[in-house]
Structure formats: C-alpha cells, structure tokens
Amino acid sequence: MPLVATKARTTDMLWNRTAVRRACQAQALFKLAALTTMLFGCGLDPTQNAAEQDLSPPAIEVMRTFPVLSSGEICGEPVGLRIVEIMTGDTLAIDMDFHDDVALAQYKIDIHHNFDCHSHAKRAAEGLPWQLVAIRDIDDKRRSVTEKLAVPPQVKTGFYHLMIRCLDAAGNEAPYVELNLRLRNATDTLPPTLVLESPFDAAGDTLDFSRKDSLIVVGQLLDNQPLHRMGSASKGRIELSYRDTSGTQYSISQVSAGGGDDSTGMPFDFRVTYRFPSFLPTGAYTVLIEGFDAVNNATRLLLHLNLTE
Amino acid sequence: MNASIKPLLIALLTALFIVANPWAEAKESSVDEAKVEAEVDGAVEVEMPALQVKAQRKPGTGIRQEIRLDQAHLERNRGVTITDALDRQAGVATLSTGVGIGKPILRGLTNQRIVTRVDGIKQEGQQWGSDHGLELAPFMIREVTLIKGPGALRYGSDALGGVLAFSTQPRSPPPGLHLTAESGYQGQNDLFSGAGSIDWQGMSHGVTAYAGMQDYADYAVPADSFTYNGYRLPLLQRQLKNTAGVEQQAGLAWTSTRSESHVETWLRVASRLYHLDAGLFSGAIGAPRAYMLQEDASRRNIAIPRQEVVHMNVTINAGRESDDWSLSLDAGHQWNRRGEYSRPHLHGAAGTSTTQGSDPELANDLRLHTLSFKGEAAHKSQGRSRATFGLNGQWQIHERAGFEYLLPDYQRSEGGAFLLWEQSLAAHADWSAGLRYDLAATETKAHAVHKVDAQSGESIEDARAPATSRIDANPSFALGASKRWPSLGIGSGAHFGTSFRPPHPSETVSNGVHHGNFRHEMGDTALRSEYGYQWDLLLSQKLANLEIKIEPFAWLFKDFIYLAPSGRFSALPDAGQIYQYRQHDAIFTGAEASFAWEGRNLRFEQVWEYLWNLNLETKLPLPFSPPWSVLTSCQGHWPLAFARIPWAQKAGLRINAHYTATADRVDRNEATTPGYLEVDLGADFMMKWGSARPEWQFDLKNALNARHQNHLSRYRPLNLPEPGRYWALRVMVPFSLPSAKPAHL
How far apart are CA B93 and CA B720, in angstroms? Predict the structure, then answer.
C-alpha cells in the first residue's frame, strides 16, 4: 500500500509541474480531430445540393377501364374495386394519367397469371397463360394515355395481375398500381361437372375419419369441351386441398387429365390417396376438391371431415 | 415510443453512471492493465487477457488499430448470427435480412468492401448479394479481430472499410482434455441451439473438434399487419411466414507447436463445414399480397422461396518465429455454394428454359472454388524496427446454374506483394510505411437465356452477358505514425493510406432480376478499379478508471462503384426499373467516440457513432447508410460467497440502451426510417458443480417492446417491423480433465 501511495504522489507532482503543457497537448490533439472532421465533413453542404435534386416520384392514376372495375374475392381474400372481368378475344382499355413535377420517362404494363395465388405452395396451372410486357416512353410533366390491350383468344383463363409502373427522368419510381383480371373463355364459359364416388358426401354431413386410414378420393370430371386435346398443353385437372378451422390451407395433390392421344368428350376418371400427417391435431377440416376444364373454368366441392385418432 | 421519452431514458442511464461513480469510488478501483495495452509499434489494442494464440500471432500491426474480442465477450453479446455480437462495437453495424441472416457493415461499407478472414483465409461468397450472411455459426468463434479503416496494404483489395478476422482456435488451454456443451433457446423465433466441443491439448500437439446446430421457426413481430404500397397486409399470428431456418456447423483442427531456445514453430491444419437452409419471407419476393401471407403447414417448415448455403474449407497455418525473424504461411481451399429456390413465374422468368436436368425450382445455383495463400516474412532489428515482406495469391472458378441469371461462369486470378517498414522512435513515437502492388486477371463467359415466346411459341435467344477478359493492376501505399504520452495516458495515431478494388464480375456482367429485392441489376463492362484515399485518426486518453477514445476518419473514393437507377424499365416481366452499376467519386467521413469507466465490479460504456457520406455526382447520400447512434451499456459482475450456497460462484447484470437516430439521409427511391430506442436487459450466473462451471445467461431483448424498423434490414422496404420483446436463455457447461503432466507449450 505505501508503494501505491508514493506512486500516486509522484504522479500528482508530475501532473502539477506539467499541467499546462499537457493540457495544451491534449487540446491540440482534440483540435486536430475536430479540424479533420470539419475539413472533410462540413466543407460541403449536402442540403444545398439536395434541394436542386428531383427526388419526388411521379404518380399514376387509373381514370377508367373498360370493362369497368368491380370488386370480389381472389384467392380467398376480398379485393376492392380492382378487378376487371373480361373474355378472351376482347380488348381491355385503360385510361391512365401520369404526372411528375419535372419530367416523365417511361411507363410499363405487365400482365402475368396468378393461377396459384403466388402462394408458393402449388404448381402453376398447365397450359399457355397470357403474358404481356409493354414499355412506352413518355415525356412532359403530365400525360394522359389510353392503352388498348387485345386478349389473345387461345390463352388460359383465370386470374391475372396487371401491374402499372412509372418512372420519371431522374429515376424516381412511382408506387405501382395493381389490378386483377378475371379472364374467361369466350367459347366456353361453362364449368365442368364433378361427380364424386368416394368418399360419399351425405348432403353436407360431417364425415368421421380416422387419421390411421387413407383418404381415397375417387370421381369423374366431365365437360362440354374436350378435357385434353392432342398437341395442346391445356388440360383439365383436379386439385385437392384442405383447411382447418382457422383457415390454414394445406395442399394435397394435383392430377391432370390426358394420357390418351385424344380424349374428346371422354370423362376424366381420377383417384387420389392421401394420409393426414401425424402432426395435425384432430378436429374439423374442410376438404376442397376443385375440377378445372381445359380453359380453366372451375367447379368446387366441399367435404367436411372430423379427424379422429 | 414517444419521442420525448428517448432523450429522457438516455439521460436516466447517464445519471445512473454518475450515481454509480462515487459509489464505486469507495471500492478499490483499478483498471485491468491487461485489457488496454499500447504496443511498441503504436497499435492501441483493446485486448482481453490470456488470448495469445500462437498460430495467429502477427508479426506487426502496422499502426492500425486492432480491436480484439475474446470468447467471453462474444458469448456475452451473442445473438443468432455472429454479426449480432459485433455490432455493439463502434463503427460496426449489421445489414440484416430478418432474423438469422446478417452481414457486417464497417463505417458504412459492406460486402466486397470489407475483408472477412477465418483462420487466416479470406471468406468468399460475399459477392452473391446481401440476403445471406457470413457462413459462420456464432458458437465456434473463439476470437474476433476488428480493424476499422483501410487494410488493403496487408490484406489486399476489398479491405477498404476494414478487416474482420475470425479465429476458431481455442485460447491456449492447459494440457488436458476440455469439454464444453451448450444449449440455448430464444423465444422470438422459437430457436433451439445445441453445440459441443472437445479440445485435447498434449505436450506439443492439440486437437479440437466441434459441432453444433440451431433450428429456428418463423419469427414473431409486434404487429398484426403491415402497410405496403397503400395495401394493408396481415401478419397472421404476428409471425413472418417462411422465415424459419436450420444452421449446422462442424469442424476439426490439429495443432502442433514447438518451442526451442528462442525459436517457436507452429502448424495447424483445420477443416470446417457449414450448412444453412433458410426460408425467405414469402411477402418479400415481389409485391407482397395478402394471400401469400396465409399460414402454411407449420411454423418450422422451410418452404419455397428458400436459400441453401454451403461452405467447406481446409486451411493450413504454419509459422516460425525467432528473435530476429518471423515467417508465416496461411493457405486454404474453400468451396462455397448458394442455392436460391423459387417459382419461375414469380421472378419474371416465365417462359424461360431451365438448365437441362436441373431442379425446376432452382432459381440460382452459384458454386465457387477458391484456392488462396498468404505468406509473410518479417525481420526485426533490436526491437526497434521491423521490415515485413508479404505475398498473397488467389485463384477462383465460379460456375452457375438455375433458371435465373445473376452472374456468369468466370475465372479470376489475383496476386499481390507488399513491403512494410515499421520503426520505433524515441519518446514513445513510431512510424510505418508500406508499398503494395496487385494484379488481377478476370475472365467471364458469355451468357444467354433461351425464352419461348408466349404467343408464337418460338424460341428466342436473349443475350444477357458478353464474354469479357480484363487485367487490373493497382499500386497502393500507406503511411502511419503514432505518439503516446504515457504519463498522461494519452495515445494518438494517424494513418493515411490508399486502397483499391477492381470491379467484380457481379458489377461488370450481371444482368437480371436480383432475387429478393426484385430489381433488375445490370453490370457495366467499362468500369475501372475504384480507389480510396483514406485518412484515419485515433485519440485516446486513460485517466484512472476512465478511458476516452475518439476515432475520426475522412475517406475520398475515386470511381466508387454503386447501383444507380437508370430511368428505364426492365423488359423482364414483373421487374421494375433497371439499376445499373456506375462509378463516381464519393466521400465518407465521420467518427466514433467512446468512453468507458470501469470499477472493480461495474463497467459503464457509451459509444457514439456517426457517418456522413455523399455521392459527388448525384449530391445524394449512398444507399444503406447507417444513421448516427449511441449505445449506452452498464454491466456489473459480483462474486458470490455464501457459506450455505457453495455452488453459487458469480452473478452479473447488464443493461444496454441503443438509440438509433432517424435515417433521413437517403438515396433516391430509398425510404427514410424513424429513429428508435431499444433496451436490452441481461443477467448471468456462474455455478460450481464438481469440476464443471456451468454458466447461465438470460436476456430480455427489446424490453420496452418498441415497434420499430431497421433501416439496414432487407425487410425495411416492405415496411416490416423488427422483433418485439423476447427472451433468450443459454446454458454453457465447460468441463476439464487436466493432464497429470506439467505444461510444456
């Protein structure tokens, strides 16, 4: 302890003797640091230059569409006035207004299918979907544009996304506008008929079902048009899924018609075997059986199951 | 949180310090001299005790500030990723993709502008984008060395922002067998982790083996919905769907050391395997839509879109050190693979053909082989000066597959040589100077995507990237000086250096929609190497228990390469604007300031960091720039000596308050992010149980349950909030069987 005390005294004395000199040294160092920061950091005023920049994005307004916008349900979710119902072979017209405070540059219309609800859980439908990318140059601060888009007659029907994007000359991006198309086939608007043989659905009654058993779904899909034509990728199909009471959806399987060279007028006989996974709790489930014809018109059947041990 | 509360809380914590100070004065306060040490060559090291690892010994630090973080520090501050433990350091931030994926940012620079080294070998795979982390599990990192600022002279190109050197080698253990088992749980993403290691240390040989994994579920957020582009989207059960993941890692190392009359030799051979399988939030792939966010089969499942990351390496570290000479060699081979899985039509690739025979859901399959070596020879002269000569080289082969195109196949060879002179002058002053020359040769293959026209059914060839060949030659130099006034406890250092980085193929020949951010990114073959002129200062003062440190820096980059909006749309479906790589001059400047007070049982620390950058062409800040922040932390550890509870050894408490300011200096099309205060609480407890010393660690993260967004998160553009309040528990059981023979290392 005395040694420590001596050391402390020595330090104190040293401090007293050279206090002024040291303070100056320390001050000089801190000044140097401040100077460096000022030299490089404060020599330029960012606000002055940023004010001259065009940083505000352009805006997109959809003034009118033909056919007119409607509301409905897509992929189980209610959608407001953002759906256009249209037939293949028809022309979709959109009146749009683009504006920017400095100068517009381009707009882009992008149509792609949404057959699987972008759910990442199911494979996309077979067949040839409609796909369109249109990029147009626009200038000035405000432009009103009417796009007329002809729907090809042979494309797959179902839900599509229509995205409208816009850029100004400086590269600022407008918030995009997303519309939904419900495309129906002009020559075939009738959905297929789904006949279920097993399990027998007793008029909406709930079926008690043991998880030890396999669910065997057997039935027939019939349509006024061929479910599969030779050389065509478009096929009728069955999709099976189920939901628990909270609405969580699980995919089971998807089976497609076809196999023969030409199945004109022939019904599609299907058979799917499924075993419920062991981690699922027992209780009520709703099995959804969906039948699609070759142009994607759909028929749905519901089965109510009570899953038991 | 109310804005007026934040400064109040900061003031409260500061007041806590003031109250704590006289309270601690009564105790015999002393600074652990081992912790802060000014070395002869001028590098001020913040060093934890007993950490000298022979195979990692460096001949000299070249007047660069090195911060060394030991295993104990890493364990105390550990999160899900290794970068979580680092971002408490001044000047370090994390670029995250939700939870489980994080990349370090040093003074605003990341990816290819910082060098990450593991066991002496530069970790590759960083050029594949920011939505994957470092291929390193936190449990096996025994030491981290952080160098802020340019390290190009010694570590080659890419070390513009700094160097992060990780070591998997355990601290020099006494001879015997040492076992460690640990397990943990984290509530916010239902994370379970388990790991174990075996270290055997003999007279001159040692073997280390470790393995571990962590399995986490979809992560929870304190919100039922989020708003994107005017749409209100649900977050069912307050979780981000498909963010679960499984991370596995294992390693094996053999070390041999020999010490004979002032000559030490060492050899270490190590191998490491890493595997990550992680989901990507479904709403983050393209425009999020309500029905994409519906629950899937389980909280733990990893569905598409997902990523798979594999890293395998073999490294050799060898060296010989005598009184006059030291020689070291680090060599290694590593294999990196990144697989991105998604549905073709979601990525603007509808109608494109995939590689024959490959998985139709494999969007990007990137495979990289890298062979690298680094050798240094240093001659010391009477402890006053040191001359170091170094050589390094690297060969890379990159191959790609998948229905998306991001990067072509390429080959790259790099080599460099440097000479570094360090000298100690009288009166605690040192100076150093170094020169370096580098050559890099890169060859990329042409790439075309074959499309089937949706309407006509015809096949169209869409050329995406030309074949290129380039050679980049770059000289660089560094100059440093340091001066200390030991009686005043003042240390200072200044460093000026040039740095460089030749453009990577991802910047010259990329041309496609980048997975995750949905931007069409396009390279430019005319890009030149970027150069940095970097000035760093360090000032520190130690007064009894108090240490103050200020580190200002000012960097000018010529031809800084960045992604700029082109004002043109991509012709690829569902893709937005084309972002093209461009280069212009840019300035980075700022400072870190910290003060720490340490008593016998208490430690208080406050760290301020500020960064300001400017693109001199656009007069706008650069994207993903961290806002200023201040971290206030207080921790105490107390030995427990209760006669009736002999198993209770030590207990500790921690509180951290991290205030991050509003990020309002943003680039074009980048949103501002409001500031927030995040408070973390923690406690630990060490037991004595036979010869084992189990240590329990409990943390309460985001204790105020503040709903906030992280400006540096990949989920920020989607307006997704960061995790709310959650807790974590970890237990670690070290166990040793000492050798009967005396230590002879």
Answer: 19
Which chain A residue lies closest to B343 (C-alpha atoms)?
A120
Which parts of chain B register pLDDT below 70?
1-65, 78-81, 98-100, 126-127, 129-132, 171, 228-232, 283-297, 343-358, 451-457, 515-518, 739-745
Side-chain-side CA neighbours of A221 within 13 Å: the count stands at 33
CB < 8 Å to A53, chain B: 618-620, 668
Residue from B28, B556, B569 to probe the interface with A (highest A Cβ count within 10 Å)? B569
pLDDT of residue A230: 64
> With an 8 Å Cβ cutoff, is B298 touching chain A?
yes
B281, B714 in Cβ contact below 8 A?
Answer: no
Of residues B258, B276, B253, the one with CA closest to residue B119? B253
Residue B580 has φ and ψ, to the nearest 5°, of -110, 145
* Cβ contact B340:B403 at 8 Å: no
- Cβ distance B554 to A41 less than 8 Å, yes or no, reads yes
C-beta of residue B520 within 8 angstroms of C-beta of residue B581: no
CA distance B670 to B624: 8
Residues of A in contact with B346 (CB under 8 A): 118, 120
HSE at residue B149, side-chain half, CA atoms within 13 A, is 29
Neighbours of B511 (CB within 10 A): 23
The rounded distance, in Å, linking the Cα atoms of B467 and B84 is: 40
Supply φ then ψ for residue B102, to 5 degrees.
-145, 145
CB atoms within 10 A of CB B528: 13
Measured CA to CA, the distance from residue A40 to residue A32 in angstroms comes to 12
What is the least distance, in Å, from the CA of A301 to any CA of chain B?
21
Nearest chain B residue to A33 by CA: give it.
B552
Query: Are the beta carbons of B296 and A37 separated by less than 8 Å?
Result: no
Q: Is the peptide bond before B305 cis (omega within 30 degrees of 0)?
A: yes
Q: Do B343 and A124 make contact, defined as CB atoms within 8 angstroms? A: yes
- pLDDT score, position A8: 38
At a CB cut-off of 8 Å and minimum separation 6, what does B584 contact? B559, B560, B562, B615, B616, B617, B618
For residue A163, give the H/E element and its range: strand A158-168
Residues of B in contact with A52 (CB under 8 A): 619
Q: Do B573 and A131 touch (CB under 8 A)?
A: yes
Q: Is the pTM of this model over 0.90?
A: no
**d(C-alpha B332, C-alpha B395), whole Å:** 11
Chain A residue with minimum CA distance to B535: A36
Strand partners of residue B102: B96
Reference B510, options B527, B499, B500, B524; nearest CA is B524
Q: Is B671 on the interface with A (CB under 8 A)?
A: no
Residue B209 in tokens: 């083996």
Q: How far apart are CA B370 and CA B648, in angstroms?
A: 49
Please give, rounded to a whole number of angstroms, the shortest distance from the CA of B610 to a CA of chain A. 11
Q: In chain A, which residues have their Cβ closer than 8 Å to the Cβ of B564?
A: 171
For the stretch A175-222, pLDDT in tens is: 889 899 998 888 888 888 888 888 876 556 788 888 888 888 898 898
Residues forming a β-bridge with B493: B482, B538
Confirm if B35 and B362 have CB atoms less than 8 A apart.
Answer: no
Contact B673/B662 with Cβ under 8 angstroms? yes
**The two three-digit tokens of residue B343, written as one number:** 């549905």
Number of residue pairs across A and B with CB atoms under 8 Å? 172
**How far apart are the C-alpha atoms of B500 and B528, rounded to whole Å?**
10
With CB atoms and an 8 Å threshold, state whether B577 touches A173.
Answer: yes
Task: Check: CB of residue A163 under 8 Å from CB of residue A82.
Answer: no
Say whether B488 and A25 touch across the interface (CB within 8 A): yes
CA B344 to mean position of chain CA atoms? 32
ipTM: 0.73
